[in-house]
Design a protein that fits this description.
The protein contains 22 helices and nine strands. By secondary structure, the protein is mainly alpha-helical.
Length: 569
């Protein structure tokens, strides 16, 4: 049945299309655009079906809790005395990922439409764009750590070239900075992945190896428990253990090899810390660079300012969310003990990001840089909600990732519109735009108000959930893991957000009409293609702001399971 392979189609369709583009002659310029657009439209249809077909369920974190699962053997190696290596092509979605998959599909479609004006090296651009498309979707659906890591790494190359070739005057500097920062994060993740491989077994494959079931049989829960009991009792020889990259198995402490490097018995140390705590911190740092979290954020403003508009849209709308998702799926679920131990520090970094990003946005003279720093500030709410480990906080963090994805994509489109007309992004060089560009002004006001968290928009729901969740954070050993001053400080960030958005509106759109870089009569309002990109984004931020249940009902069971899995570790 086709539906059983929807996730694979989402991944491999753009890859096949990219290969097809490579063999097309350069003169077929228009075909490149239509192929990229066609792939995005097919993905949209599949994404809608996935959303409508998804059934919220599950009370435990297990393979059975995922839907649209595709799982089969990929890499199997006999390592003799070290046992056996097993890596799988294992994809699926749950409440933590289904919304992000749909977000990615929509933003990638808008990015394809926004890329329509690309004329220079169009063949290379759209080929790289399609590879980036596949890598993004792969990250959100991969449930094997090795598979996830490969998709995570694949994103580096297309992003490097898309910024470095089609970006602004300082594109080489921005692309290299982006590449090095992300590569450093990848190295941190790789170190932990290797440690996990040496420490975790696949109980089902190990049962086959022990002769408890045949290769054609699926292991029952009883068989899995039997293997885990034998493992903890030291009754399985090392050469019969099947080690795995399966992220679901990594969350179950019963699958940890006794006295392995990342076992729950802290006999191993790294960086002067118990190995599991060090593993959590390395994963956190690796994904915090991508979010980005202060002080790992310095690559983001440069990347945004120099990237072409479609790539800024994807970078803000989707790529930053891979960092947040990585924290959910790996750092928190695999190392819940680290998540609880460092909750205060994670929450504190979230608050610092909120305030620091807001102050920098307030001081920014470049419109694109202002929006970039606003992303740093608003992604800080994701960190604060996650650190709270309450159902409200975690729900708010996921809601914020999706809400910010739509809003930030629109904000960078807004910056791109004015730059296309004037080749200028300095706020001080504009005044009174409302008189010449009324449609553009309405769009700007809508998304600025949505971003600052005005009721009726998705940002309000996300931020109020985070604030509620952090104020009443999870209780461990009779004490809330986050102090309430963090919540109160985060509220101040909302005030700063209102300040820089309202100041920008007042400066650019009201008063006497003035544009420094072009003749006053030459500037034109939004065209149909631009409206086509903005209208769906307006609909999404309004629907999520007025009817939050369309997303909350989808993610609630998975969020409850997520919180219970961590707190009951």
């Amino acid at each position: 049945m086709l539906q059983a392979h929807f996730l694979s189609i989402l991944i491999f369709l753009p890859l096949v299309a990219a290969l097809f583009l490579v063999i097309l002659p350069e003169r077929k310029n228009i075909y490149f655009k239509f192929i990229a657009l066609g792939v995005s439209l097919v993905q949209l249809i599949i994404g809608v079906v996935l959303y409508l077909s998804y059934s919220p369920s599950g009370s435990s974190y297990s393979i059975e809790g995922f839907q649209f699962v595709e799982r089969f053997g990929w890499i199997k190696l006999d390592l003799q005395s070290l046992g056996k290596l097993s890596a799988e092509y294992f994809v699926g979605v749950d409440g933590l990922s289904i919304g992000l998959v749909l977000l990615s599909i929509i933003i990638l479609l808008i990015g394809a439409i926004s890329s329509w004006q690309i004329k220079e090296n169009a063949k290379a651009y759209f080929s790289l764009y399609l590879v980036l498309n596949a890598s993004i979707i792969g990250c959100f659906v991969a449930l094997d750590f090795l598979l996830f890591y490969l998709f995570f790494e694949f994103m580096l190359l297309p992003m490097y070239f898309l910024i470095g070739i089609w970006g602004g005057p300082r594109r080489e500097y921005a692309s290299i900075k982006f590449f090095l920062y992300t590569l450093m994060g990848s190295i941190f993740i790789l170190i932990v992945m290797i440690g996990l491989y040496t420490s975790v077994i696949d109980p089902g494959a190990t049962a086959v190896e022990l002769g408890l079931i045949s290769d054609s049989q699926s292991p029952t829960a009883a068989i899995m428990k039997q293997v885990q009991d034998m493992l903890q009792a030291g009754q399985i020889p090392q050469d019969r253990l099947v080690r795995t990259f399966n992220m679901v198995f990594m969350t179950d402490s019963g699958n940890l090899i006794p006295d392995s490097f990342l076992s729950t018995i802290n006999t191993h140390f790294m960086l002067g810390l118990p190995a599991r705590f060090a593993g959590f911190l390395l994963l956190f740092a690796g994904f915090a660079i991508k979010v980005p979290v202060v002080p790992f954020h310095t690559w983001l403003p440069d990347a945004h300012v120099e990237a072409p508009t479609p790539i800024s849209v994807i970078l803000a709308g989707v790529l930053l969310k891979i960092g947040g998702y990585g924290l959910f799926r790996t750092a928190y679920l695999i190392f819940p003990d680290g998540a609880i131990n460092y909750a205060w520090w994670v929450g504190c970094l979230g608050v610092i990001s909120i305030i620091y990003g807001a102050f920098n946005a307030l001081a920014s003279k470049d419109l694109k840089r202002l929006i970039a720093f606003s992303s740093v500030s608003h992604m800080g709410f994701v960190l604060l909600g996650l650190a709270a480990l309450s159902v409200e906080g975690v729900s708010g963090a996921i809601y914020q990732m999706i809400s910010h994805g739509f809003i930030s994509a629109a904000l960078f489109l807004i910056a791109g519109v004015i730059y296309d007309r004037t080749a200028d992004r300095l706020i001080e060089n504009y005044s009174g735009l409302a008189s010449q560009m009324p449609k553009y002004t309405v769009i700007v006001v809508i998304f600025f108000f949505a971003s600052l968290g005005l009721p009726g928009f998705s940002g309000f729901i996300a931020e109020i959930l985070v604030l509620l969740g952090s104020f009443a954070s999870a209780v461990v050993a009779g004490i809330g893991i986050l102090p309430r001053w963090m919540t109160l400080t985060a509220v101040f960030g909302l005030v700063l957000s209102a300040a820089y958005y309202l100041w920008t509106i007042q400066r650019m759109f009201f008063g006497k009409y003035y544009v420094k870089s072009v003749p006053t009569e030459s500037i034109i309002d939004l065209n149909r293609k631009e409206l086509l990109m903005f209208i769906p984004l307006i609909i999404f931020v309004l629907v999520l702001g007025i009817f939050p249940s369309v997303l909350l009902d989808l993610i609630n069971n998975s969020v409850v399971t997520f919180v219970d899995t961590i707190l009951n570790f």
